[in-house]
């Protein structure tokens, strides 16, 4: 706790981690929810392809590629194994991982409205009777959507995904943004006709304002980043997608060839959902690591203390002010923290200086420019991979484990493991912001 309060970068291996089978049961998550989300995204592909031209070649599939990061790994001193980038920074629609959960929840809401008002038969549908969801672009559907509003609180990227997809469907949208949100994200949303309400408070207060604004109005749907199962399910679909991508590359994932996935974490919904999906697919062969700013290690704090959303980093004197605006969250999702606590192998905290350095090194080595919040994943890759190579698995201090915990929970990660850095955002950065990060 003292090291967290001092904003000291560290690595903590979770002593409460369990085997995957036990962790999935303890999560309380119904796996059918993820299958339902995958089916919904499939049904909407005709409309998505028609509405977002960048998805046309993939026939409306919202997915990002895997990319080798050989040059970056070499520059980072990683000599063995493989480093991959999951390019959610160029995920279609909104250029961040939030296009997974955020898009799914809005589509689910739109579908439920259409069914409730008799414009669509309710799912499930026999394969031969699946409606053509391109009808969501027609006037009756847009007229219905125009009478309803979606509201969300956000530090930026979730608001972008919710606002963009809502506006495309014809839904009214309001995004409550905290003081950490960057101006260009607010400007982009307003250019799409989205109402942006600015708050001079932190993320938690912006969410609370959004929730309050939606109360008592049946025409308003509130996207609750702290508790939403729909968001979680949309993120979790990524697990089965990664299975296919690794198989196509001929990259094995098993006990002898583990996969270590490094996931930037804010309130926890996106990394929690992705981790759940990955653990369902790869079991004990995948190790998930959450990465947070030293100024806002809310999920680590919640899990470490067992208090989850009953504790805020403010109690440690931390302000949540960080260049990683997407991770600037002081209080974690209690739902996600409790659901996946047995599935997350470890937690890494990174300073602003470390994240900015990784932004520059990725740009110079691979020509990929991401937000600092996404580059946090690379700091975790470097720390975990080089520690494994140095044979430091039994040295608590070398691994940066907080005082009071031993390193018994550290997974056995061979130097030849595959490390996957989940680049969670950056594809929509304006040129001047890119120049500022990489200059």
Question: Could you report the average pLDDT, rounded to the nearest whole number?
Answer: 92
Strand count, sense and barrel status of the largest sheet are: 7 strands, mixed
Strand residue content:
5-15%
Distance between the amino and carboxyl termini: 35 Å
Find the count of extended strands (DSSP E, 2+ residues).
11
Give a verbal description of the structure.
This protein has 439 residues and is an alpha/beta fold. It contains 19 helices and eleven strands. The chain has helices at 2-5, 20-27, 32-43, 45-51, 70-75, 98-116, 139-146, 157-169, 183-191, 203-214, 229-236, 238-249, 269-282, 298-305, 334-340, 352-366, 372-389, 396-399, 431-438; strands at residues 11-13, 66-68, 82-86, 149-154, 172-177, 195-198, 220-223, 259-264, 286-293, 344-350, 418-422. The strands form two sheets. The protein has a seven-stranded mixed β-sheet, with helices on both faces. The chain has a four-stranded parallel β-sheet with strand order 6-5-4-7, with helices on both faces. Helix 6 packs parallel to helix 8, helix 11 crosses helix 13 and helix 13 runs parallel beside helix 15. The longest helix is centred in the N-terminal third of the chain and has 19 residues, at 98-116. The radius of gyration is 21 Å and the shape is globular. Mean pLDDT is 92; it is low at 392-406.
Topology:
Blueprint: H1 2-5, E1 11-13, H2 20-27, H3 32-43, H4 45-51, E2 66-68, H5 70-75, E3 82-86, H6 98-116, H7 139-146, E4 149-154, H8 157-169, E5 172-177, H9 183-191, E6 195-198, H10 203-214, E7 220-223, H11 229-236, H12 238-249, E8 259-264, H13 269-282, E9 286-293, H14 298-305, H15 334-340, E10 344-350, H16 352-366, H17 372-389, H18 396-399, E11 418-422, H19 431-438
Helix pairs in contact: 3-11, 6-8, 6-11, 8-9, 11-13, 12-13, 13-15, 16-17
């Amino acid at each position: 706790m003292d090291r967290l309060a001092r904003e000291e970068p560290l690595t903590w291996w979770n002593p409460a981690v369990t085997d995957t089978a036990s962790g999935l049961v303890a999560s309380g998550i119904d796996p059918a929810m993820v299958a339902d989300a995958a089916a919904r995204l499939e049904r909407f592909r005709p409309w998505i392809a028609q509405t977002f031209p960048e998805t046309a070649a993939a026939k409306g599939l919202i997915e990002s590629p895997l990319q080798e990061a050989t040059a970056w790994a070499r520059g980072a001193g990683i000599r063995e194994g493989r480093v991959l980038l999951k390019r959610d920074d160029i995920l279609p629609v909104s250029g961040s991982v939030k296009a997974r959960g955020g898009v799914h929840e809005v589509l689910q809401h739109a579908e439920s409205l259409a069914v409730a008002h008799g414009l669509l038969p309710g799912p499930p549908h026999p394969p031969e009777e699946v409606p053509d969801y391109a009808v969501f672009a027609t006037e009756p559907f847009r007229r219905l959507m125009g009478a309803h509003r979606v509201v969300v609180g956000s530090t930026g990227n979730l608001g972008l995904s919710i606002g963009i997809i809502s506006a495309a469907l014809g839904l009214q949208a309001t995004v409550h943004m905290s003081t950490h949100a960057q101006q260009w994200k607010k400007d982009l949303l307003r250019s799409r006709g989205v109402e942006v309400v600015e708050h001079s408070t932190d993320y938690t207060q912006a969410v609370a304002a959004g929730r309050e604004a939606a109360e008592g109005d049946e025409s308003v749907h509130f996207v609750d980043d702290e508790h939403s199962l729909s968001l979680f399910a949309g993120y979790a679909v990524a697990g089965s997608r990664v299975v296919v991508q690794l198989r196509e590359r001929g990259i094995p994932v098993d006990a002898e060839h583990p996969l270590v996935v490094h996931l930037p974490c804010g309130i926890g919904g996106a990394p929690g959902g992705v981790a759940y999906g990955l653990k369902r697919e790869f079991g004990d062969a995948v190790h998930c690591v959450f990465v947070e700013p030293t100024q806002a290690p809310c999920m680590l704090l919640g899990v470490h203390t067992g208090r989850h959303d009953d504790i805020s980093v403010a109690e440690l004197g931390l302000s949540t002010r960080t260049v990683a605006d997407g991770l600037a969250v002081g209080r974690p999702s209690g739902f996600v923290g409790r659901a996946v606590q047995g599935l997350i192998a470890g937690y890494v905290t990174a300073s602003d200086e470390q994240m900015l350095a990784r932004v520059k090194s990725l740009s110079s080595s691979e020509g990929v420019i991401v937000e600092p919040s996404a580059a946090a994943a690379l700091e975790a890759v470097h720390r975990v991979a080089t520690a494994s190579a140095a044979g430091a698995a039994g040295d608590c201090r070398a691994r940066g484990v907080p005082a009071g915990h031993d390193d018994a929970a550290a997974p056995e990660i061979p130097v030849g493991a595959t490390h996957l850095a989940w680049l969670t955002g950056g594809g929509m950065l304006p040129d001047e912001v890119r120049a500022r990060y990489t200059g």
